[in-house]
Specification:
By secondary structure, the protein is of the alpha+beta class. The protein is built from two helices and four strands, in the order αββββα. It has one domain. A four-stranded antiparallel beta sheet has the order 1-2-3-4, with helices on one face. The relative contact order is 0.19.
């Protein structure tokens, strides 16, 4: 994902701004792996293989996102989607 694209994104739930943490970039500074967090509702949206995952909660798959979160931020306490067992 190009960093200039991030400037156009907002939280799909409440339209608030997003905070970006970059974990892996390529030579052109494109984000390959990262985590976007809503500044208001605290939902998180991973970036995997350069693709931001911003699907509605009911369509997200915990088992696919959990390894990324554990890799990037082992102590991360997500709000909303993954906070319930």
């Amino acid at each position: 994902m190009k960093l200039s694209f991030f400037d156009k994104l907002c939280c799909p739930f409440d339209k608030s701004g997003l905070q970006l943490e970059v974990y892996l970039q390529d030579e052109e500074k494109n984000v390959i792996e990262g985590l976007m967090t809503c500044t208001s509702c605290k939902r998180y949206f991973p970036i995997a293989y350069g693709v931001p995952i911003m699907t509605p909660d009911e369509y997200r798959e915990r088992q696919l996102e959990r390894p990324l979160l554990e890799k990037w931020k082992p102590d991360f306490e997500p709000q909303g989607f993954l906070s319930t067992p």
